Amino acid sequence: MSFNVAIDGPAGAGKSTVAKSVAALKNFIYVDTGAMYRAMALYFLRQGIDKTDENAINAVLDKVEITIRYENGAQQVILNGENVSGLIRTEEVGNMASATSVYKKVREKLVELQKNLAKKADVIMDGRDIGTCVLPDADVKVYLTASSAVRAKRRYNELKEKGTACDLDEIEKDIIERDYRDMHRENSPLKQADDAVLLDSSDMTLKEVVDTITAMIDKKQGA
């Protein structure tokens, strides 16, 4: 029987970084569901499809194949045979992913893949609706959040380190707008599962968050 961990929360809460760290400690497979939506978004951008044109997006879904493979423990995202792992972390792709992930057909296609992965192995997944929709029976559920100001500052520092010009106020504005979209979308809105543990990382270090979640898993496993 596989052991599943679900981490949900808003953009910029550190879900991916935390999930990767916990997966490494517990020898679980880390499934970055956001990367799948980003790969899909990259395809839409390449096709020149407007993010508001749901019919056009639905029309090309059958032409999109997204798979995941692991090389040296790292997740590689494959879009129609091409490794796009290094191409999907831009703001443009992120905004397209946020806008198009609300569409029912997009979610259905990717959720099926995510569920199949979880049946086969011990996984830790992060996203917006893992504990509520993708893995409702997950053994451990966490809702990881932080204030919009803290999340914006983290993102600002990441971009500055990469030498990317950015504006802190604009980043926070984008985060707040993305939160609203994610929480008010018709299909699988972002919300805390009834049985998820709320973890606010605003004043926590990465290690403190990782240690907290790891302890939750150990307790559930009876370690």
The fourth-level CATH homologous superfamily is: P-loop containing nucleotide triphosphate hydrolases
At the first level of CATH, the class is Alpha Beta
Number of strands: 8
- Stretches with pLDDT under 50, minimum 5 residues: none
Mean of residue pLDDT values: 92
Radius of gyration: 17 Å
Q: What would you call the structural class?
A: alpha/beta
The share of residues in extended strands comes to 15-25%
Secondary-structure element string: EHEHHEEEHHEHEHHEH
Could you name the CATH topology? Answer: Rossmann fold
Shape: globular
Largest sheet: 5 strands, parallel
How are the strands ordered across the major sheet?
2-6-1-7-8
Helix percent reads 40-55%
CATH architecture classification name:
3-Layer(aba) Sandwich
How far apart the termini lie comes to 17 Å
**Number of helices, counting only DSSP H or I runs of 4 residues or more:** 9
Number of domains: 1
